[in-house]
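Why this split exists: single-chain examples teach little about how molecules sit against one another. For that reason, every record in the complexes split bundles all components of an assembly together and asks for one structure covering all of them. Below is a record exactly as it appears in the raw files.
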Amino acid sequence: MSIVLRLAWRNLWRQPRRTWLTTGAMVFSNVLLVFMMSFQFGMYDLMIENTLKIFTGHVQVQAPGYLDDKKMRQTVADIVPLADSLRTGLKSNKVAARGITFALASSEERSYGIMIYGVEPGFEPEVSTVPGLIIEGEYFSGIAAAEIVVGSVLARNLKVGLGDEITLLGSGVDGSFAAAVATVKGIFESGVVDLDRNIAEIPLQFFDDTFYMQGAGHQISIFAADLNDVGDLQIDVQKMLPAGSNLVVPDWNLLQPGVRQAIQADMSSAFFMYFVLVILVSFSVLNTQLMSVLERTHEFGIVMALGLRPGRLGRLVLIETALMGLMGMLLGMLAGAVVTLWVAQVGFSIPGMDEMAVQFNLPATMHPSLTLFSLTTGPAVVFVFTILAACYPALRMHWQKPVEAMRAV
Amino acid sequence: MTAVSCIDLCKTYRQGDQDIKALDHVSIDIQEGGFVCLSAPSGGGKTTLLNAIGGLDIPDSGQVIVAGTRIDNMSKGDLADLRLRQIGFVFQAYNLIPVLTAQENVEFVMQVQGMAANKRRDRSFAILKEVGLEGLEGRRPAEMSGGQQQRVAVARAIASRPALVLADEPTANLDSKTAGELMELFKMLNELHGTTFVIATHDQRVMTFAKRLIRMLDGQIVEDIDQRAA
């Protein structure tokens, strides 16, 4: 072991209480950072997945311009064969075609403007949570059945139940008048009032017949195996589109900009808090190392007299800090991982946050998700700032004159 | 050959609103293998002269030449290298590194010099034996007496075989018996290895060991005696 490293390690334990107090501050902040980041990123993933799983998907195939202006006539032609070819090409069933339009839904007593989704009953459960949220009745029996699944609030507003009929009035893709009668097959409840009040689904072929789509639709929703694979999926899908096609493949960031913005806003405030925490720890380290250097001024004068260059002495101070930082980092990561894994098992809920959780499609009890990123990022930043905090005490070595240092008591 | 040459050195300190002339046009030559005592009452300038010779302090004017190299205009880093390779220091308060053992303290300079581990280990053990500390190699300074600590300091000063050893009041904290033993050790090293010793002291017993005695007063050399001739 080099003499500087040996000296640094032993110097740390001259004042064990001080070393442990400073290391403890690092461990505490690292535990907090590991837990909070795991919790935060776990929550974001959940928020993204839960939001995208309702309808959006990770990517969609759409007609150009549909994203900005959802007009009925901006269609994807031959949407079912295209969805079939994408399923084959991607070797995944997480692909489903849809038609979407606004219509007036009328029961015997009431009428409401709603959004109608024409869906492929066989594949919609692969890309949407709605089929799994049915609380009464069941999902569709076939692709052409004149059936409708409505949200619970809409059913209540229309005063309809299972087996009742709803009349749909709208306009076809060619601008002509469109009308159909569908029987209520199921009622879903997502917990998101807006969805439960405004959304209804019908089978895609029934949608096609009703709104004269002639085989066209508005979107193909596709899921990747993992959120991290979305970029690759987007490229693959783009390649599989028919030659000469001008279809576009927006990803979830474009489809749901609100989710990204909500995450960014939350991250900004969270990272500001983390930054304050890191700065506080850095000042604690600066204080410790400055005290440690000042009380050893005489000793530093001696080793300078013996021929140690000021730069090497500065390195000694940095190595001492690095050793302490390393201890804080490793112990903090270990303790942080234990705490996070434990909370991941038992769950964590914030009282009074239930409403906000529902708004972001989050469960009331959340579970942090420990990843390499959440485990290492916070402690690594604390470590870097710890070293930066030791730069001033280390630089003092360069300014120190041996004879003056030796006069220090 | 001349080991140390000081030419017209001046150094003034500011103390309160007074200027103190610590060195007032001091010029001396010290030959290789010399055993020189600088004697002066407190504030007489002996430590300032020693510090100037060791490159620990820079004179206001004049030149300091060590082993043929002018050092008063050297950079901090070059001075550190010079001290590391050519000069050994023994201080009044021992000044060992408290977290290192006796053997590690002795090895310190050699390790900083980059000497191979087995070579410096062998040498540190040999030198500790030479200064009478065989068996105490693993002790830390706090576990040794003042005399033992000063012997470790001497061992550290001579371990890398410097041409010049500068000692500032090396016996001030020692009883007369230990002080005598230390001076015998210095004398033996001077005779055995030809190491040049410059010792700042106001201890009369120490002065009797010197081949040359330089007396200083108020920053000036007032007497320069060749004691071998006496």
